[in-house]
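Most newcomers find our protein records easier to grasp once they have seen one. A learned vocabulary of local backbone shapes supplies the integers on the structure line. An example says more than a description, so a record of this kind follows:
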Amino acid sequence: MAELALSGQQLLDQVASELAAGGIARPRQVARELWGTVRGQTNVASLLDPPATVSEDDYAQLMALTARVVGGEPLAYVTGWTGFRHLVVRTDRRALIPRPETEGLVELALAKVRHGVAADIGTGTGAIALALASEGAFDRVVGVDVSPEALALAQENGDRLHIAVEWLLGDLLAPLAGPVDLLVSNPPYLTDREYAELDASVRDYEPRLALPSGEDGLAATRRLLDAGRQVVQQGGWIALEVDCRRATATAALAEGFGWREVSVQDDPFGRARYVLARRGTTP
């Protein structure tokens, strides 16, 4: 295999320069992640070793990945992975890319419930369910998704990480056979207009099924709060990620459905992002 007269550090500089020219934020960090993808790693120690030389094949692959990022494709789809809490999960266009905000949802949910049965509704990559299973002390964790493709990706992540989660195919709460102590969901929560106005890197690549939810953006959330009363054990909790523009409205919905101890919590960026509520003694 031919090698180029180019060190890893020189290549990093070249790729970072091309990314910066394409308007990509954090170009040096992105360059390192792309190189890690070429090498099949999630670290860049080999790239930063001064004696490292670069093969023509590695160079061509890295340039192709760089072009995809500059062209607008999300980095997590280009690399095929993203970090979520202490996990590294595989990502592709079958499921929404897990965001840092959703890591905060897991944190809040675990602060309320760590035992019994937990369910992640709209599991996507499986990130929430896998984090709950690995960090909590649950007897059982269930991940549900209406998309067979997303559910297959979640199962692949569970198998690769050797974390036991029960994966169920179906619409929202329909597949759940028994009561749960914790119900967690990052459901679709945009209006159709908001979806149409999304950045192209989201709208053109991530699955539409995971994003808009009716005229007011609350269709899935409303169904979870309503049907959740029949699924969550008395004294159990529901934890939802919501659009910050509708956090107050979501909390009002929860109270209207009879949930107790309803609270709105901010995400790490100071936006009202989570609604938590406890099921009372009446449905």
Remarks:
- The chain has a mean pLDDT of 91.
- The two ends are 67 Å apart (CA to CA).
- The CA atoms of residues 189 and 217 lie 5 Å apart.
- The longest strand covers residues 232-241.
